Amino acid sequence: HSNQLRQARAMGDYLIVGVHTDEEIAKHKGPPVFTQEERYKMVQAIKWVDEIAPGAPYVTTLETLDKYNCDFCVHGDDITLTIDGKDTYEEVKTAGRYRECKRTQGVSTTDLVGRMLLMTKAHHSNIDEDLDYRKHTDNFGKGPKGHSPWTGVSQFLQTSQKIIQFASGKEPQPEDTIIYVAGAFDLFHIGHVDFLEKVHQLAEKPYIIAGLHFDQEVNRYKGKNYPIMNIHERTLSVLACRYVSEVVIGAPYAVTADLLDHFRVTLVCHGMTEVVPDKDGSDPYEEPKRRGIFQLVDSGSNLTTDLIVQRIIKNRLAL
């Protein structure tokens, strides 16, 4: 989704994103995983978005474009149909006020739902592929016409170009307060956004560095088949957030003196979630605590990756 918004923003000067209500989505697609309020806030937190249009109609009309003073609308190159099988962009296409961007291959909502329900770890990076999993995914992704490139459970392929497109490219300035946060940031959601927003408010000029743990490390402290998104996908999800300036890909679990000195960190923050001890039983935040630069931040949100997975499982029949 972030990549689509990034491409759309590059086509113009000001990006307004229409977000549908739960009711509209339920009618045309099935029950949404996130509530409309969560989705409004999530979209607003993506750095290429200038404004959101809450409760946007499912079918984009010229009337909607005019209402928000838009020259054209953008959609991915996958077709969307209304409940009665009509192209939702027909009217704007005919009027020449439609542009298309490339769909991001290798990841989709369907695919992520599949990973949650299959409970295997084959989506983790640098892990031997599990043959049993291939069998599952082949069934999962196939419609009556055989394999679909959009719904198979696939591996997202990271490139340096994609990281550059998502990265802010901004170096910390001397007057910036460098704040370090670390975690899995799996299925980047409103709980993460609320936490990062609170951290962002702690300083006049915050420069937030997010340390992301490798898949195997996350699996050690989260168990099951976590993380649902591999390190490459999590990197881009976090970089797309307007509060984050930099990401450490595969950060060490323990926040070491080396890391703090290297990035000239002023403050280290953690949310209210449990901190699992390191492999040797030590506290991963021992060093920042010793320096007196550790702070707990309450996001005020109770949403966790676990809860999202529970929502999916609860809805899986309807989905």
UniProtKB/TrEMBL annotation:
Keyword flag Lipid biosynthesis: yes
Gene Ontology cellular component annotations, sorted alphabetically: cytoplasm
Signal peptide from the UniProt entry: none
GO biological process entries: phosphatidylethanolamine biosynthetic process
Matches recorded under InterPro entries: CCT (IPR041723), Cyt_trans-like (IPR004821), Ect1/PCYT2 (IPR044608), Rossmann-like_a/b/a_fold (IPR014729)
Pathway: Lipid metabolism; Phospholipid metabolism; phosphatidylethanolamine biosynthesis; phosphatidylethanolamine from ethanolamine: step 2/3
Keyword Transcription regulation on entry: no
Key words of the record: Lipid biosynthesis, Lipid metabolism, Nucleotidyltransferase, Phospholipid biosynthesis, Phospholipid metabolism, Transferase
EC numbers: 2.7.7.14
Record Gene3D superfamilies: HUPs (3.40.50.620)
Enzyme kind, highest EC tier: transferase
Molecular function, one GO term: ethanolamine-phosphate cytidylyltransferase activity
All residue ranges annotated as the Cytidyltransferase-like domain in the record: 1-113, 181-271
Pfam family, one: CTP_transf_like
Family: Belongs to the cytidylyltransferase family.
NCBIfam families: cyt_tran_rel
Protein name: ethanolamine-phosphate cytidylyltransferase
Organism: Gavia stellata (Red-throated diver)
